[in-house]
Amino acid sequence: LADPCLLTKKKDDKYVYIGLYVDDCICIGRKELVEETEKLLKANNLNLKVEDELVDYLSCEINFNDDRTRAWLGQPHLIKNLMKTFWDEVKELQEYKTPGTPGIGITRHVENQKIEEDEAKKFRSGVGMLLYLVKHSRSDIANAVRELSKVMDAPTLAAMKELKRLIKFVLDTKNYGLRIEPR
Q1: For residue range 10-24, what is the model confidence (pLDDT) as tens digits?
Q2: Are 130 and 141 in contact, with CB atoms under 8 Å apart?
Q3: Helix, strand, or coil here: 49?
């Protein structure tokens, strides 16, 4: 894999995924391979704290299946913050099938299109929450968030409309997350 923060270990056509972030590590896979990986890390003088009932990692909620070979990572607390902050403004919007409007790119400030400073603060806050979602559990919204982040310094009415569309999509798909399922 290209990302040095996600590693794999394979043995007899079985995998364990090893996620690293600063000083945090998570291993997901077949129990025997996870235990073998743990022993290998300890043998290399790494100080490990093993938690058999991990339910939170990097502010993500983690749900394992019964035999702990599959996991779902999501950020329901952040979704609740989006709901609290934006629900009144997005509740009447239709349900969207995609995170962003197809074929639309966000453009920089257009004359007479700049929004008021209190709305601009709300825009920046919304984009910030979405960036955090992208970072840990919602890669499906990455392109739409990238487009919005281009105009953080001077959001327009069109950008605010796209933000609300994206937030409505996220709220309608609040059960989406990162599914990790090694073979």
Answers
A1: 888 888 888 887 778
A2: yes
A3: coil
